[in-house]
Amino acid sequence: MPVDVDAEVLWNTQLSPDYNVLALAAPEVSALARPGQFVMLKPGPHGALLLRRPYSVFEQLRDGIGRPIGLTVLSRKVGSGSALLYDAVAGTRVRCLGPLGQPFTVADPPTVALMVAGGVGLAPFAMLAEALVSRGVRASLLYGARTAAELFCLDRFEQPSLRVVLATEDGSAGEHGRVTRPLEDELARTPADQPVQVYACGPEPMLEAVARLASAHGRQCELAMERLMGCGMGGCYSCVVRMRDPSGATRYVRSCLDGPVLRGEDIVWES
What we know:
Blueprint (H helix, E strand, L loop, with lengths): L2 E12 L4 E7 L1 H6 L5 E5 L10 E4 L2 E4 L5 E9 L3 H8 L5 E8 L11 E7 L6 H10 L3 E8 L16 E7 L6 E2 L3 H10 L6 E6 L2 H13 L3 E5 L15 E5 L5 E5 L6 E3 L8
Parallel strand pairs: 8-9, 8-12, 9-10, 10-11, 12-13
Antiparallel strand pairs: 1-2, 1-7, 2-6, 3-4, 3-7, 5-6, 13-16, 14-15
Helix pairs in contact: 4-5
Protein backbone atom coordinates (compact mmCIF):
# COMPACT_ATOMS: atom_id res chain seq x y z
CA MET A 1 0.00 0.00 0.00
CA PRO A 2 1.26 3.53 -0.73
CA VAL A 3 2.08 5.86 2.13
CA ASP A 4 1.55 9.60 2.36
CA VAL A 5 4.35 11.55 4.02
CA ASP A 6 5.29 15.17 4.62
CA ALA A 7 8.80 14.90 3.12
CA GLU A 8 11.59 17.35 3.84
CA VAL A 9 13.60 18.58 0.86
CA LEU A 10 17.15 17.32 1.37
CA TRP A 11 18.68 19.07 -1.61
CA ASN A 12 17.80 20.43 -5.03
CA THR A 13 20.23 20.30 -7.96
CA GLN A 14 19.20 22.59 -10.82
CA LEU A 15 20.66 20.98 -13.93
CA SER A 16 19.58 23.70 -16.38
CA PRO A 17 17.03 26.52 -16.53
CA ASP A 18 14.32 23.84 -16.90
CA TYR A 19 15.53 20.57 -15.33
CA ASN A 20 16.34 19.64 -11.73
CA VAL A 21 16.83 16.66 -9.44
CA LEU A 22 15.01 16.99 -6.13
CA ALA A 23 15.85 14.82 -3.11
CA LEU A 24 13.17 14.10 -0.52
CA ALA A 25 13.45 12.52 2.94
CA ALA A 26 10.83 9.82 2.47
CA PRO A 27 12.31 6.54 3.76
CA GLU A 28 8.90 4.86 4.03
CA VAL A 29 8.19 5.48 0.33
CA SER A 30 11.72 4.69 -0.81
CA ALA A 31 11.79 1.33 0.97
CA LEU A 32 8.71 0.18 -0.96
CA ALA A 33 9.53 1.64 -4.38
CA ARG A 34 10.32 -0.58 -7.38
CA PRO A 35 11.71 0.45 -10.79
CA GLY A 36 9.03 2.16 -12.87
CA GLN A 37 6.78 3.19 -9.99
CA PHE A 38 5.92 6.82 -9.28
CA VAL A 39 4.96 9.26 -6.56
CA MET A 40 2.41 12.07 -6.45
CA LEU A 41 3.95 15.29 -5.15
CA LYS A 42 2.37 18.46 -3.82
CA PRO A 43 4.98 21.20 -3.31
CA GLY A 44 4.62 24.73 -2.02
CA PRO A 45 2.59 26.21 0.83
CA HIS A 46 -0.85 24.89 1.76
CA GLY A 47 -3.34 25.75 -0.98
CA ALA A 48 -0.68 26.52 -3.59
CA LEU A 49 -1.82 23.58 -5.74
CA LEU A 50 -5.16 21.83 -5.93
CA LEU A 51 -3.79 18.58 -7.40
CA ARG A 52 -0.57 16.68 -6.92
CA ARG A 53 1.81 15.98 -9.79
CA PRO A 54 3.15 12.51 -10.82
CA TYR A 55 6.90 11.82 -10.94
CA SER A 56 8.81 8.59 -11.50
CA VAL A 57 11.05 7.58 -8.64
CA PHE A 58 14.50 8.37 -10.01
CA GLU A 59 16.84 7.09 -7.27
CA GLN A 60 16.58 5.41 -3.90
CA LEU A 61 18.77 7.24 -1.38
CA ARG A 62 20.48 5.09 1.26
CA ASP A 63 22.62 5.70 4.31
CA GLY A 64 26.07 4.23 4.93
CA ILE A 65 24.72 0.79 5.81
CA GLY A 66 22.22 0.61 2.97
CA ARG A 67 19.01 1.64 4.74
CA PRO A 68 16.58 3.73 2.62
CA ILE A 69 16.49 7.38 3.70
CA GLY A 70 14.72 9.01 0.76
CA LEU A 71 14.32 9.29 -2.96
CA THR A 72 14.92 11.65 -5.83
CA VAL A 73 12.81 12.78 -8.77
CA LEU A 74 13.99 14.15 -12.10
CA SER A 75 11.75 17.07 -13.06
CA ARG A 76 11.27 19.36 -16.02
CA LYS A 77 9.73 22.79 -15.42
CA VAL A 78 6.61 23.04 -17.60
CA GLY A 79 3.90 24.48 -15.33
CA SER A 80 3.10 25.85 -11.90
CA GLY A 81 3.60 22.56 -10.04
CA SER A 82 6.94 21.70 -11.61
CA ALA A 83 8.05 25.33 -11.15
CA LEU A 84 7.49 24.98 -7.40
CA LEU A 85 9.59 21.81 -7.40
CA TYR A 86 12.29 23.54 -9.43
CA ASP A 87 12.48 26.36 -6.87
CA ALA A 88 12.19 24.20 -3.73
CA VAL A 89 14.92 24.79 -1.15
CA ALA A 90 16.40 22.44 1.43
CA GLY A 91 14.35 22.26 4.62
CA THR A 92 10.99 22.97 3.01
CA ARG A 93 8.27 20.32 2.78
CA VAL A 94 6.64 18.41 -0.08
CA ARG A 95 3.68 16.07 0.32
CA CYS A 96 4.71 12.73 -1.15
CA LEU A 97 2.29 9.87 -1.83
CA GLY A 98 3.65 6.57 -3.08
CA PRO A 99 4.93 4.34 -4.40
CA LEU A 100 2.14 4.03 -6.95
CA GLY A 101 1.52 2.01 -10.10
CA GLN A 102 2.91 -1.16 -11.59
CA PRO A 103 6.71 -1.52 -11.89
CA PHE A 104 8.89 -2.87 -14.66
CA THR A 105 9.52 -6.60 -14.83
CA VAL A 106 13.22 -6.90 -14.05
CA ALA A 107 14.84 -9.35 -16.46
CA ASP A 108 17.25 -12.13 -15.51
CA PRO A 109 20.23 -13.50 -17.45
CA PRO A 110 20.68 -14.53 -20.20
CA THR A 111 18.19 -11.86 -21.33
CA VAL A 112 19.74 -8.70 -22.78
CA ALA A 113 18.04 -5.47 -21.63
CA LEU A 114 17.63 -2.39 -23.83
CA MET A 115 16.42 0.71 -21.97
CA VAL A 116 15.21 3.50 -24.26
CA ALA A 117 14.87 6.96 -22.72
CA GLY A 118 13.64 10.14 -24.37
CA GLY A 119 14.25 13.42 -22.50
CA VAL A 120 12.85 13.38 -18.98
CA GLY A 121 11.85 9.78 -19.73
CA LEU A 122 15.27 8.94 -18.29
CA ALA A 123 13.64 9.11 -14.84
CA PRO A 124 12.67 5.45 -14.22
CA PHE A 125 15.92 3.99 -15.53
CA ALA A 126 18.38 4.78 -12.74
CA MET A 127 16.57 2.32 -10.48
CA LEU A 128 15.99 -0.19 -13.27
CA ALA A 129 19.65 -0.09 -14.35
CA GLU A 130 20.75 -0.74 -10.77
CA ALA A 131 18.37 -3.71 -10.49
CA LEU A 132 19.47 -5.20 -13.81
CA VAL A 133 23.18 -4.84 -13.08
CA SER A 134 22.74 -6.40 -9.64
CA ARG A 135 21.26 -9.48 -11.35
CA GLY A 136 24.09 -9.73 -13.84
CA VAL A 137 21.98 -8.73 -16.85
CA ARG A 138 23.82 -7.30 -19.84
CA ALA A 139 22.10 -3.94 -20.28
CA SER A 140 22.29 -0.87 -22.49
CA LEU A 141 20.79 2.58 -22.03
CA LEU A 142 19.80 4.30 -25.28
CA TYR A 143 19.27 7.93 -24.28
CA GLY A 144 18.01 10.59 -26.66
CA ALA A 145 17.25 14.30 -26.51
CA ARG A 146 16.92 17.25 -28.83
CA THR A 147 20.43 18.52 -28.06
CA ALA A 148 23.47 17.67 -25.94
CA ALA A 149 22.45 20.33 -23.42
CA GLU A 150 19.38 18.22 -22.56
CA LEU A 151 21.30 15.03 -21.73
CA PHE A 152 21.51 14.84 -17.94
CA CYS A 153 22.68 12.65 -15.07
CA LEU A 154 24.95 10.42 -17.15
CA ASP A 155 27.11 9.87 -14.07
CA ARG A 156 24.29 7.72 -12.62
CA PHE A 157 24.89 5.20 -15.40
CA GLU A 158 28.69 4.98 -15.30
CA GLN A 159 29.06 1.28 -14.58
CA PRO A 160 31.42 -1.15 -16.34
CA SER A 161 28.59 -3.59 -17.09
CA LEU A 162 26.20 -0.92 -18.44
CA ARG A 163 26.61 0.47 -21.95
CA VAL A 164 25.30 3.96 -22.76
CA VAL A 165 24.43 5.03 -26.31
CA LEU A 166 23.48 8.68 -26.88
CA ALA A 167 21.46 10.24 -29.68
CA THR A 168 20.55 13.87 -30.33
CA GLU A 169 18.24 15.27 -32.95
CA ASP A 170 20.69 18.06 -33.81
CA GLY A 171 23.74 15.78 -33.83
CA SER A 172 25.50 17.65 -31.01
CA ALA A 173 26.19 14.43 -29.05
CA GLY A 174 26.16 10.75 -29.92
CA GLU A 175 24.30 9.58 -32.98
CA HIS A 176 22.54 12.14 -35.16
CA GLY A 177 18.81 11.50 -35.06
CA ARG A 178 16.15 10.13 -32.79
CA VAL A 179 16.89 7.49 -30.20
CA THR A 180 14.83 4.93 -32.12
CA ARG A 181 17.63 4.79 -34.71
CA PRO A 182 20.19 3.11 -32.40
CA LEU A 183 17.40 0.91 -31.05
CA GLU A 184 16.64 -0.35 -34.55
CA ASP A 185 20.34 -1.05 -35.08
CA GLU A 186 20.56 -2.96 -31.78
CA LEU A 187 17.52 -5.08 -32.58
CA ALA A 188 18.71 -5.82 -36.11
CA ARG A 189 22.12 -7.10 -35.05
CA THR A 190 21.00 -9.16 -32.05
CA PRO A 191 20.82 -12.90 -32.86
CA ALA A 192 17.27 -14.24 -33.03
CA ASP A 193 18.01 -16.84 -30.34
CA GLN A 194 19.18 -14.21 -27.86
CA PRO A 195 16.40 -13.22 -25.39
CA VAL A 196 15.87 -9.44 -25.39
CA GLN A 197 13.69 -7.25 -23.19
CA VAL A 198 13.02 -3.68 -24.31
CA TYR A 199 12.02 -0.99 -21.81
CA ALA A 200 11.08 2.56 -22.76
CA CYS A 201 9.91 5.85 -21.31
CA GLY A 202 9.50 9.17 -23.05
CA PRO A 203 7.12 11.10 -25.31
CA GLU A 204 4.22 9.00 -26.56
CA PRO A 205 5.20 9.14 -30.27
CA MET A 206 8.59 7.72 -29.25
CA LEU A 207 6.89 4.96 -27.24
CA GLU A 208 4.72 4.01 -30.19
CA ALA A 209 7.79 3.83 -32.43
CA VAL A 210 9.60 1.66 -29.87
CA ALA A 211 6.62 -0.69 -29.59
CA ARG A 212 6.40 -1.07 -33.36
CA LEU A 213 10.14 -1.73 -33.70
CA ALA A 214 10.08 -4.32 -30.92
CA SER A 215 7.09 -6.06 -32.51
CA ALA A 216 8.73 -6.06 -35.95
CA HIS A 217 11.73 -7.88 -34.47
CA GLY A 218 9.65 -10.26 -32.36
CA ARG A 219 10.73 -8.72 -29.05
CA GLN A 220 8.71 -7.92 -25.96
CA CYS A 221 8.69 -4.39 -24.62
CA GLU A 222 7.43 -2.63 -21.53
CA LEU A 223 6.54 1.06 -21.77
CA ALA A 224 6.22 3.54 -18.92
CA MET A 225 3.40 5.74 -20.22
CA GLU A 226 3.66 9.47 -19.55
CA ARG A 227 -0.05 10.19 -19.19
CA LEU A 228 -1.39 13.14 -17.19
CA MET A 229 -2.66 11.96 -13.83
CA GLY A 230 -5.00 14.01 -11.70
CA CYS A 231 -5.01 11.79 -8.63
CA GLY A 232 -2.70 8.80 -9.13
CA MET A 233 -5.19 6.53 -7.36
CA GLY A 234 -7.63 5.67 -10.17
CA GLY A 235 -10.43 8.01 -9.17
CA CYS A 236 -10.38 10.66 -11.89
CA TYR A 237 -9.98 8.55 -15.09
CA SER A 238 -7.72 11.22 -16.59
CA CYS A 239 -4.97 8.76 -17.57
CA VAL A 240 -6.78 6.05 -19.53
CA VAL A 241 -4.96 4.01 -22.17
CA ARG A 242 -6.68 1.85 -24.77
CA MET A 243 -5.50 -1.78 -24.55
CA ARG A 244 -6.16 -5.04 -26.38
CA ASP A 245 -6.83 -8.13 -24.25
CA PRO A 246 -5.87 -11.73 -25.22
CA SER A 247 -9.23 -12.25 -26.96
CA GLY A 248 -8.60 -9.28 -29.24
CA ALA A 249 -11.23 -7.07 -27.60
CA THR A 250 -10.24 -3.54 -26.61
CA ARG A 251 -10.79 -1.79 -23.32
CA TYR A 252 -9.51 1.24 -21.45
CA VAL A 253 -7.27 0.91 -18.40
CA ARG A 254 -6.09 3.54 -15.95
CA SER A 255 -2.34 3.92 -16.31
CA CYS A 256 -2.00 4.98 -12.66
CA LEU A 257 -3.34 1.56 -11.56
CA ASP A 258 -2.67 -0.91 -14.40
CA GLY A 259 0.45 1.03 -15.41
CA PRO A 260 2.33 3.25 -15.81
CA VAL A 261 4.27 0.24 -17.10
CA LEU A 262 2.26 -1.51 -19.82
CA ARG A 263 3.08 -4.14 -22.43
CA GLY A 264 3.76 -2.35 -25.71
CA GLU A 265 2.19 -5.11 -27.82
CA ASP A 266 -1.13 -4.70 -26.01
CA ILE A 267 -1.53 -0.92 -26.47
CA VAL A 268 -3.92 0.28 -29.16
CA TRP A 269 -2.28 3.38 -30.56
CA GLU A 270 -4.60 6.19 -31.54
CA SER A 271 -2.44 7.51 -34.39
